Amino acid sequence: MALIVQKYGGTSVANTDRIKNVAQRVASYHAKGDQVIVVVSAMGGVTDRLIGLANEIMPIPTDREMDMLLATGEQTTIALTAMALHTLNVSAVSLTGAQAGIVTDGVHTKAKIRNITPSQVHSMLDAGNVVIVAGFQGQTTEGNITTLGRGGSDLTAIAIASAVKADLCQIYTDVDGVYTTDPRLVSTAKKLDEISYDEMLELASSGAKVMQSRSVEFAKKFGVPFEVRSSLNQNPGTLVKEETANMENVVVRGVSLDKNQAKVTLVGVPDRPGVAAKIFKALSDAAVNVDMIVQNVGHGSNPTTDLSFTVERTDLAKSQQVIAALNSEIGFTEVVSQEEMGKLSVVGVGMKSHSGIAAKLFDVLSAQNVNIDMISTSEIKISVVVALTQAEDALKAAHDAFIA
Ligand code: ADP
Ligand code: ASP
Ligand code: MG
After folding, report:
1. Which of 6, 41, 48, 113 to mutate to test the pocket of ligand 2 (most atoms within 8 A of CB)?
2. CA-CA 20 to 30 A from 195: which of 54, 223, 226, 260?
3. What pLDDT is recorded for position 248?
4. Nearest to 403 by CA among 244, 212, 205, 255
5. 8 A C-beta contact, residue 265 and residue 304
6. Which positions ≥6 away from 106 have C-beta within 8 Å?
7. What is the pLDDT of residue 275?
8. How far apart (Å, rounded) are the C-alpha atoms in residues 182 and 210?
9. Pocket residues for ligand 2 (CB within 6 Å)?
10. Which of 174, 194, 218 is a domain's end point?
């Protein structure tokens, strides 16, 4: 008998037939005597629709109410999934994030899990139930409902697997596993049998939305290996785990594209100590995640410089608001925003021991006539920001050059 956490994403529970299909799979594990905790997302498209409704009312919705609204998506699915199991004569109980003991900080819409006390989960399991937990949500110690950032049901699953010390954590989705790149964008993408936490983390934080990046960070920190596989067939998936020595033999494991980037440039920023600190402190206080930052050299006797940074497109309005409020204090000339940017990243632990990858990438992009706007690197990743209109062609070219 094993204790298993299974997470089903939005497409896997997109309609009642899919939910019945999920129930069949869960029931087959339960029939073998396994204890199963199921984490579900909102039905596909529901979270986006809820965000759309909120935006019809206000462009930057109040955070607390946004979480109250978004949490309803997952709450619908847990109840329907429990009902689908009841029709198969399987005892099942649904729990909200709060009922499952998920306590978060108070940063609405991007809350971090502080701790999990899964006593109700354990007692329900011990009574012979399948326990179905709403993904993506938690509760502050003051009792406010929070959500964990887009794609946050992955984090719920991995955090619960860690808290209950599950024997197996399975992430069921609409593709067969983790591929060398998004198989919907590049038809030659290949499924990987295994990938290290670090590579998965870099891919996920660079747009491979097959896993939410914070969930991978959590899995690495607490050593929770997990399997990504399809809810639509029985094919073996991809194992995400600690790096092993032979993994470094592959230089580039995968290529990813984040199409949700926006770039903000502050022109004519006074080039003196403390200015960058003020700008990025204000953005961080507003819970805006800044990704790349580029600052030019100052010029002139009273030097000014241009400062560019990238954020997720959904944070652009908030960033513009924060920056505008700083102008009287800092005094820059103007702010220019480019809403439609993409970030292409090439990832592999083998880069630690191989050189020339950046040069090869720049060469491939220049052959495609793609202009590189910004560049950043880590030990196992090279990322470039390019115009969104050229981003998919750039992705295909990079995948062809490094993998196909
Ligand atoms: P879920 O709703 O199950 O959480 P997501 O839509 O969040 O599923 O993630 C699955 C999607 O991730 C796939 O349909 C695929 O288009 C996309 N994807 C992006 N990069 C990759 C990759 N490297 N491997 C597999 N899927 C990827
Ligand atoms: N429903 C949430 C979203 O669409 C969480 C998730 O699906 O993981 O982002
Ligand atoms: Mg997802």
Report:
1. 41
2. 260
3. 84
4. 255
5. no
6. 140, 142, 144, 146
7. 93
8. 8
9. 9-10, 41-42, 47, 73, 135-136, 150-154
10. 174
Residue 324: HSE in the Cβ half-sphere, 13 Å Cα cutoff: 8
Q: Does the beta carbon of 41 lie inside 6 Å of ligand 1?
A: yes
25 plus 162 within the same structural domain: yes
pLDDT of residue 109: 95
Q: What confidence tier does 298 reach under pLDDT thresholds 50, 70, 90?
A: confident
Query: Taking a C-beta distance cutoff of 8 angstroms, is the pair 375, 383 a contact?
Result: yes
Task: Among 182, 185, 240, say which to mutate for ligand 1: greatest number of ligand atoms within 8 Å of CB.
Answer: 182
In the chain, the N- to C-terminal Cα span, in Å, equals: 41
In this structure, what CATH number is given to the domain that contains residue 339?
3.30.2130.10
For residue 154, the ligand 2 atom closest to its alpha carbon is: 8
CA distance 227 to 137: 22
Q: What is the pTM (predicted TM-score) of this model?
A: 0.93
Q: How far apart are CA 372 and CA 326, in angstroms?
A: 29
- Domain membership of residue 95 (yes or no) is yes
pLDDT, tens digit (0-9, with 9 covering 90-100), for 53-96:
999 999 889 999 999 999 999 999 999 999 999 999 999 999 99
Least confident of 100-104, 146-150, 354-358: 354-358
265 strand-pairing partners:
308, 336
Judged by average pLDDT, the poorest of 36-40, 279-283, 303-307, 388-392 is 303-307
What is the model's pLDDT at position 404?
76
Q: Would residue 346 count as lying in a domain?
A: yes
CA distance 315 to 397: 29
Question: Would you say residue 372 has pLDDT above 90?
Answer: yes
Number of domains in the chain: 2
Q: Is the domain of 8 the same as that of 141?
A: yes
Return the number of other C-beta atoms located less than 10 Å from residue 44's C-beta.
Answer: 16
Q: What are 14's two structure tokens?
A: 């997109």
Identify which of 182, 210, 402 to mutate to test ligand 1's pocket (most ligand atoms within 8 A of the CB). Answer: 210
Give the three-class secondary structure for 345.
strand
Instruction: Give pLDDT, residue 235.
Output: 97
Final residue belonging to a domain, choices 174, 189, 204 = 174
Per the structure, the complete domain to which residue 268 belongs is given by 256-402
What's the mean per-residue pLDDT of the chain? 96
**Would you state the pLDDT for residue 302?**
81
CA-closest candidate to residue 265, choices 300, 286, 304, 294: 294
Q: Is 178 in the pocket of ligand 1 (CB under 6 A)?
A: yes
